[in-house]
Design goal:
Order of helices and strands: HH
Number of helices: 2
Strand content: under 5%
Number of domains: 1
Shape: elongated
Helix content: over 70%
Distance between the termini: 10 Å
Radius of gyration: 15 Å
Length: 69
């Protein structure tokens, strides 16, 4: 019952950290402003939503396949 041995757990965790990385880059660009934010700000937040959706699905799949306990 150790999650550390489950590859699906690690895939979901990596997806969650990917969401965090995208969010931090987006917030950093927004705080700094300038050309980077104008060019990539909206795209980064759209990418974050897509990555977050995938991460949530992976976590739900993990819980469902492991019997919900």
């Amino acid at each position: 019952r150790i999650m550390a041995n489950d590859p699906l757990f690690w895939v979901a965790a990596i997806a969650a950290f990917g969401v965090l990385a995208i969010l931090m880059i987006g917030i950093g660009g927004f705080a700094k402003g300038g050309a980077f934010n104008k060019k990539y700000g909206n795209k980064l937040m759209q990418l974050r939503i897509a990555a977050q959706f995938i991460a949530v699905l992976l976590f739900l799949l993990f819980v469902w396949l492991r019997g919900g306990s």
